[in-house]
Amino acid sequence: MANSEIQLIKIDNAEIVKRYMGQQQGEFVIRSTFGGADQNLVLSGSEDAKVYIWHKENGTLIETLEGHHSPGCVNVIAWNPTDPCMFASGGDDHKVRM
């Protein structure tokens, strides 16, 4: 695992398909997720208390969202299964943001 890089890999041979750059991850495991319409976005929390959103196919960083208090880590992201425009994030500040 590389610091400040999320890797999309093929599960059968671990080949790196795409790299998503920008978020901070060095000390903790942060799980990323797919979401949005047609699952075309990659979202991840970060050790800088932000949420990062990339376009899945081209790797472009679309948005960096603040909302959790620093210092701290955004540990988890979950998509609303019935609304592809809504997700929640949870962080070390003991808050869930939607």
Question: Can you put this structure into words, describing what you see?
Answer:
There is one protein chain. This protein has strands at residues 5-9, 16-21, 33-35, 41-44, 51-55, 61-65, 74-79, 87-91, 96-97. The mean pLDDT is 89. The chain is an all-beta fold and 98 residues long. It has no helices and nine strands. A four-stranded antiparallel β-sheet has the order 3-4-5-6, with no helix packed on it. Strands 7-8-9 form a three-stranded antiparallel β-sheet, with no helix packed on it.
Count of helices?
0
Q: From the alpha carbons, calculate the radius of gyration and give it in angstroms.
A: 13 Å
Q: Round the mean pLDDT to the nearest integer and report it.
A: 89
Number of strands: 9
Uncertain runs are none
Residues in β-strands, percent: 35-45%
Q: Helix and strand succession?
A: EEEEEEEEE
- In order across it, which strands form the biggest sheet? 3-4-5-6
> Structural class from helices and strands?
mainly beta
Question: Fraction of residues in helices?
Answer: under 10%
Coarse shape: globular
